[in-house]
Amino acid sequence: MKYLSEYRNIEATEKVLDNLKKTVSKPWNIMEICGGQTHGLVRNGILDLLPEKIRMIHGPGCPVCVTPLHLIDKAIELLEQGVILCSFGDMIRVPGSKQSLLEAKAKGGDLRILYSPLEAVKIAKNNPDKEVVFFAVGFETTAPANALSVLHAQKEGLSNYSILVSHVLVPPAMEAILDDEFSNIDAFLGAGHVCAIMGYKEYHALADRYKIPIIITGFEPLDLVQGIQMAANQLEAGIYKVENQYARVVKEEGNLNAIRIIKQVFEVGDREWRGIGMIPNSGYKLTKDFALYDAESRFGIEGIKVSEHPNCMAGDVLKGIKKPVDCPEFGKTCSPANPLGAPMVSSEGACSAYYNFSEHSIR
Amino acid sequence: MDDKEAKELTINLGHGSGGIMTRDLLDKVIFSTFDNPFLNKKHDGSIVKFETEIAISTDSFVVSPIFFKGGNIGELAVNGTVNDVAMCGAIPKYLSLAFIVEEGLKMDEFIRIVHSVKRAADESGVQIITGDTKVVERGKGDKIFINTTGIGAVHSKANIDADNIKTGDRIIINGNIAQHGMAIMSEREGLEFESSITSDTTNVNHLVLKLLDTFGEDIHLFRDPTRGGMASVLSEIASDIGLGIKIFENDFPLEKQVAAACEILGLDPLYVANEGVFISIVDEKIADDFLKLMQKDPKGKNAKCVGYITEEHPHKVVMQSSIGGTRMVSPLIGEQLPRIC
Hints:
- The complex is a heterodimer.
- Chain A is of the alpha/beta class.
- Chain A contains 16 helices and eleven strands.
- In chain A, strands 4-3-5-6-11-10 form a six-stranded mixed sheet, with helices on both faces. Chain A has a five-stranded parallel sheet with strand order 2-1-7-8-9.
- Chain A is globular, with a radius of gyration of 20 Å.
- In chain B, about 30% of the residues lie in helices and about 25% in strands.
- Chain B is built from ten helices and 13 strands.
- Chain B has helices at about 5-10, 20-35, 35-40, 75-85, 105-125, 180-185, 205-215, 230-240, 255-265, 285-295, and strands at about 55-60, 65-70, 70, 90-100, 125-135, 145-155, 170-175, 220-225, 245-250, 280, 305-310, 315-320, 325-330.
- In chain B, helix 2 (about 20-35) runs parallel beside helix 5 (about 105-125) and helix 4 packs parallel to helix 5.
């Protein structure tokens, strides 16, 4: 807990904020990639403490938010087929086209909420007469554990374990956002936990090509304001490079063991992002060697297709083109109790963070 | 029933049939444990006398797992209802006790639970005066559910009513938050983590009585933030009273281990369930003395003033974060869901 109290220190945070006010002379748009960072900014009331000229734009880094609707319907289909479906908690309340996993559970589906996919392998071992599927959602952060679960199942010789894969990757999403004609982002706060796994070597080319500062940033209040300060320093000085604010956790080369495990099981492929659409080479899929563990082909559910709620602006919110409060449905027909789209469901989603913590909560 | 016999027996549908097996179970386990003049009459109900206004509260307990660090469903069922009666400004006196048991529950587990009920009832000074035991088929329950209803005499000096809350009132809590919820969480399937976090389930009626004796009408509200945690109860109060509530993140007493567990699991302690914790909203002028008296009691030794009632932001709870920013605090929607990363 030592690192937590240090990075939640009010005096240290105030000092950076004072400095930041002196640094900033022009308006800048800074996007924090990760939903955990959005949550941290809003939960700690940091947005109100920033200089007016700094505008934070909330990025697409909420794994629940970008998981396509049809994958939720596929997960529900698995429950209906009698599979034991294991999932991280965030996913279960996200509405599919007809219902959420939680509702499907209430109708008799065997849904288990887990913190680790390795638990799902244990469940598969203990239930040899049942099929067990783990809903493998997330960015690069959850990929090592999900890959490891497949390796464990293989080692145990389990033939009743598979994963429903919806893994997405951060750098291709950053590129897609920068390529969008409406995008107006001046700097990125890179996602600290993702870089803890993958490192940040591949970010240098991105910073050069788009002439944009990228600051790998942590999640505590002091981390966030330091990251913003470092971005502002570069912007004011007219330079653009990759810097690492989160050096206590992130190394440039990443976690080599974790990367090795990912590469053993997954390969890069095209992925659809909810609200954004198909982004080439933006996700992981199982390699041919592990195709047996792919729940989509195993249960013949690849064909399920559905469309989004027509009034949901999740795509524009995820790309930072619109703020949650710009949406006419926000807080009216769309709320965490009755979400139209995923950013309102996950506590990391920008809409939910605004609804729960900001002044716009009741209007 | 001796231990050996209890270890070998399992509760089955016959124990809920109303026939000889039921009678046997009641005689050997229930009546022998509680042994009081009300129950000993073995009638359909009991007759009690009150000279004053009375407060009644009922609650059903379905916690899983039924045994957890710091307690079990039995004492939870007593403390929960005793505390709810106390929150009305009353002195709890009698309890009803109804079990719904799923066939297959081990007899020795049932007996352990009944003994915990007895111990918790004795500690809080209430008597079990009526009850019921039903057995349902396997798969139609979850080991055991308990319903208790409590009844108590309203304290002569009490005037507990949200309408009495006014600007400037102080919000005081008696102890560490989030303890019970995290103790239960640490033992659920799939979330197991090593910790020594224990549930804080306990009665608070004796402390409440002391506070009412001393401060009477200057106590405007008591509430116990069980499910939904602090955030949900405070939001509910704010939306009912038409005034705002300001709280301070740094002032909430939180044990280090509980804080760490919340951090790891991505949960906000303000939304985690409590058991032996209650919120008091009291007149500004008595707040310091109230806090001091509380802190002298073992069940209030970690008491803290965490906020106040304000005219600003009516109907809303606003929290000052540990780094000086502010944010809204909203009620919990559905269950608190752990985050992915």
